[in-house]
Amino acid sequence: MTATATATTVSPMLTRLAAEKATGALLRDHGTLYLVDGRVVHAESPSSPGVDVLLTAGGRLPREGWDEAVDRAGARGAVGRFLVDSGRLHDGELEICHLGAVFDAAFFALGPASGPTRFRYGVGHWFGAVRPVDTGAVERETLRRRELLDSVWPYPAVDTAPVVPRRAAPGQPVGARQRALLAAADGVRTPADIARMLGRPAFHTLLDVRRLAAAGLVETPYEAPPPDPPAVPGWVGEVATPDPDIALLRRLRDALEAAL
Asked: Rounded to two decimals, what is the model's pTM?
């Protein structure tokens, strides 16, 4: 494997599955990637809003329309196709929304994993394929997003902590997107909660939160400092410090010995 390939590989198993043109589901700690012939056709993560949230919370599709599509086409793995064929979405709308959801969920699914990575051959997703994406493109975008977050504000603790807004300085500009995010920040909701509430991709929400933290408009939960060392008992000082009278006698002795 070349140095370039090594640098852009976040999951060796995903690279191997792409090479063998596998079809199935790659299960990791923070999400799942669905492959067809070695290409990514869908992704989902608990940390990322799904296509349903992006469409319904974003106001593009009524919830009833989504539920009908799942009921009528989910069993045959063609929910996306049904949304287009029924006139609820245009091809381009579906493709853009679905790609956004795939890259968003893949960012979390391909994060550092501590548990086992498993692959279930032949497993498909009920949404169906829309536009397959090369695994290399998914991995490169995942790495780019990691670097972008750290370049904005290198404190990943803000990604999972409740978003606590701070008062803007006089004259400090705040964009419309950021104002909506700050309005949803109640000190309890995390960035993932806010993303679902606003119908936005989770990564874009993380990016906005880091920018707000860098601007001082959101609190950054720094690592807690180590606890203070326990107080030294008083008797330790008494033992460690010579008795004043003894110290004086030693000095007198040393002076007499020097005079002899």
From this structure: 0.81
From CA 137, how far away is CA 18, in angstroms rounded? 12
Q: H or E element: which one contains 239? A: helix 234-240
Pairing of strands 24-28, 39-44: unpaired
Q: Other C-beta atoms within 10 Å of 18: how many?
A: 20
**C-alpha 5 chain-centroid distance:** 24
- Indicate the angle between helix axes 91-109 and 202-214, nearest 10 degrees: 60
Tokens matching residue 81: 């196709």
Instruction: For residues 10 and 5, give the distance between their C-alpha atoms in angstroms, rounded to a whole number.
Output: 10
Hey, how many other C-beta atoms are within 10 angstroms of the C-beta on 259? 6
Give the model confidence (pLDDT) of 7-26 as tens digits. Answer: 457 899 999 999 999 999 99
CB 20 within 8 Å of CB 38: yes
Element (H, E) at 118: strand 118-121
